[in-house]
Write a structure and sequence with these properties.
With about 300 residues, the chain is mainly alpha-helical. The protein is built from 13 helices and 5 strands. α9 runs antiparallel to α11. The longest helix is centred in the middle third of the chain and has 17 residues.
Length: about 300
């Protein structure tokens, strides 16, 4: 932990597989933003042809121009970044991936930041899916002067001991505390909620969200045919860590608990658990538009 930065214990152990990565983020089909300052510096390296390889992105930012297969123009045949090899630089998004950062504010001041690893990356997926609850213990030390943040931090600690179906019921109880109560953590046994309607969930994702890969579409289309029966505590820890505290900004903890449970069930599609976890992360967790659509669907269900 650095100054007001809290991470799972595995965070600093990540190392990019570079050319040996089985599914490089440089060919994921995402838009890759690149900042104006970086572009300005890259103009000093004519061989990189930076002007030829950038375009306007969907969010009115500047992004790298992917080829027709969704591959970065600077990914060479050895799976390495030509931009970095020639200039020693790369875009901010590229240098951070698969790390993600969440800042939590009190007023206009940052109270603390949490950082983790995204499961869309093969090496990060290997790490998070072998993690234990103790890897997240340091996250429970980030107390603040804000009553809601402290309530959700304490609530998250208890959430780590629940199942996905209990998590939804827990979210209902927490929401009552936020809306009408005194911000006390519910006591006693948490009952199971009704199971998630996986067919309706998958149909919504097919109909409404942006889909990157045919593999993800195929999983959704066949969601009732093949589903993993095994449970995965490491996956649940990862999803709770990634999404639970987002309710700090919205005060809607019930929807975040539903989202965690829904993503957990989606990750059980198909017969290759780790690959489905990576696909779900790639398709949903990196796209705020898709996530917000999913939240709207779950909040109405």
């Amino acid at each position: 932990m650095k100054d007001n930065l809290f991470t799972p214990s595995y965070f600093d152990g990540f190392h990019c597989l570079m050319g040996s990565c089985p599914d490089s983020c440089c060919k994921a089909g995402w838009e890759i933003p690149i900042g104006d300052d970086t572009i300005k510096k890259l103009r000093a390296y004519p061989a990189l042809e930076i002007e030829k390889n950038i375009k306007d992105g969907s969010d009115e930012d500047t992004v790298l121009r992917m080829n027709g297969y969704g591959v970065c123009p600077y990914l060479n045949s050895d799976g390495l970044c030509e931009m970095y090899l020639k200039s020693g630089m790369m875009g901010d998004v590229c240098s951070k991936h698969p790390r993600f950062y969440e800042e939590y504010y009190i007023g206009e001041e940052i109270a603390f930041t949490e950082a983790g690893l995204s499961a869309s990356c093969p090496e990060a997926a290997r790490i998070v899916l072998s993690a234990t609850k103790s890897d997240y213990d340091s996250l429970f030390d980030s107390g603040t002067d804000d009553e809601l943040i402290n309530f959700l931090l304490a609530a998250r600690e208890k959430a780590f001991s629940l199942t996905p179906r209990k998590l939804i019921t827990y979210g209902e109880l927490l929401q009552e505390e936020i809306d009408f109560g005194t911000l006390e953590i519910p006591d006693g046994e948490i009952p199971d909620s009704e199971p998630i309607d996986i067919k309706s969930l998958c149909q919504f994702i097919l109909d409404e969200t942006e889909i990157l890969t045919p593999e993800w579409r195929e999983l959704l289309l066949n969601c009732e045919q093949v589903r993993k029966k095994q449970e995965s505590k490491p996956l649940l820890y990862y999803l709770i860590f990634r999404f639970f505290l987002k309710a700090v900004n919205t005060e809607d903890i019930l929807t975040e608990c539903k989202l965690i449970a829904a993503l957990y069930e989606l990750c059980r599609l198909g017969d290759d658990f780790t690959e489905t976890v990576r696909l779900s992360s790639k398709e949903l967790e990196h796209d705020d538009f898709n996530l917000d659509l999913l939240r709207d669907f779950l909040s109405d269900s």
